């Protein structure tokens, strides 16, 4: 799920979680790969992860997690965890890993370790089709925040001007919330939501002017009856605070588990399994290139 990260963490939270991790990680570097392997996902961030009508966890992350477990030959136990508590739950030992569309970011790497990236998709704004925001034209399809050129800076300036005074929704504790805080907080009114679904519902009802989320996370909404009157506007965003793709997060100082997970993901990249799963769930290949770290 892209707290991703950011799905991000405030500096104060980083210190608290780091301390918590130091206290809870009793087995440290000598710990073997757990069997069963307990993997947390959110269950509310389709198509990365969701809960079906029967109450079962499903989605891209769930399939990736199960395949990883099969390749390292351990029993897989996938559990649901609310997004705002997903890293604290890992640090306190409720589970061994997180597979939840979580973006690999420097902020998160202060408190958890990440595998290599296994998927990446850009972030996009969405608004109702009759919104004047749909007329925004920056002249660019993508903005990479890692090293902004003049055209990308101009595109951001255009967005700031056109969004001025608008209310923009975002899921709390995410990289998308971090983006709004850093680039648009002095221009727009930011409304934070506990889940992507609740954000989408308010957008469909016209209670906010626009929303920002991962492109793939928007797809379920845009394909639904409620979302057919909405669409993307402006360029997609990646790089910079959006991180280096999505990875599986584990506690720091567990090299045996990290090596096992990386080995499984590398083999899934090389034999096309990640490509097949991403095409199944997203409709396009969102997998990271083989060898990506």
From TrEMBL:
Keyword Signal: yes
PROSITE patterns: PROKAR_LIPOPROTEIN, SBP_BACTERIAL_3
Entry-linked SUPFAM superfamilies: Periplasmic binding protein-like II (SSF53850)
Ranges that cross the membrane: none
GO cellular component: cell envelope; membrane
Keyword Signal among UniProt keywords: yes
All residue ranges annotated as the Ionotropic glutamate receptor C-terminal domain in the record: 36-284
Subcellular location, record wording: Cell envelope
Pfam families for the chain: SBP_bac_3 (PF00497)
GO MF term (any one): ligand-gated monoatomic ion channel activity
Coiled-coil intervals: none
Annotated keywords: Signal
Solute-binding protein family 3/N-terminal domain segment(s): 36-285
Secretion signal, residue range per the UniProt entry: 1-18
PANTHER family xrefs: ARGININE-BINDING EXTRACELLULAR PROTEIN ARTP, MEMBRANE-BOUND LYTIC MUREIN TRANSGLYCOSYLASE F
Family in the record: Belongs to the bacterial solute-binding protein 3 family.
Protein name as catalogued: Histidine-binding periplasmic protein
Organism: Rhodospirillum centenum (strain ATCC 51521 / SW)
């Amino acid at each position: 799920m892209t707290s991703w990260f950011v799905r991000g963490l405030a500096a104060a939270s980083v210190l608290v979680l780091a301390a918590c991790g130091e206290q809870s990680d009793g087995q440290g570097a000598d710990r073997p790969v757990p069997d069963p392997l307990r993997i947390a996902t959110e269950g509310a961030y389709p198509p990365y992860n969701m809960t079906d009508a029967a109450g079962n966890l499903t989605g891209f992350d769930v399939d990736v997690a199960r395949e990883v477990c099969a390749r390292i030959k351990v029993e897989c136990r996938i559990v649901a965890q609310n997004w705002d508590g997903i890293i604290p739950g890992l640090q306190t030992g409720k589970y061994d890993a997180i597979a939840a569309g979580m973006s690999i970011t420097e902020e998160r790497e202060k408190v958890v370790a990440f595998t290599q990236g296994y998927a990446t998709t850009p972030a996009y704004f969405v608004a109702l089709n009759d919104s004047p925001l749909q007329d925004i034209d920056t002249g660019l399809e993508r903005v990479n925040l890692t090293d902004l050129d003049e055209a990308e800076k101009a595109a951001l300036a255009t967005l700031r001007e056109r969004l001025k005074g608008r209310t923009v929704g975002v899921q709390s504790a995410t990289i998308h919330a971090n983006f709004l805080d850093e680039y648009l907080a002095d221009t727009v009114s930011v409304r934070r939501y506990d889940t992507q679904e609740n954000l989408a519902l308010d957008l469909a009802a016209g209670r906010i002017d626009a929303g920002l989320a991962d492109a793939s996370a928007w797809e379920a909404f845009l394909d639904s009856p409620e979302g057919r009157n909405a669409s993307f506007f402006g360029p997609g965003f990646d790089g910079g605070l959006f991180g280096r793709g999505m990875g599986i997060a584990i506690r720091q100082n567990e090299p045996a588990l990290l090596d096992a997970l990386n080995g499984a993901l590398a083999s899934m990249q090389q034999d096309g399994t990640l490509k097949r799963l991403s095409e199944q769930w997203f409709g396009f290949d969102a997998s990271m290139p083989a060898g990506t770290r």
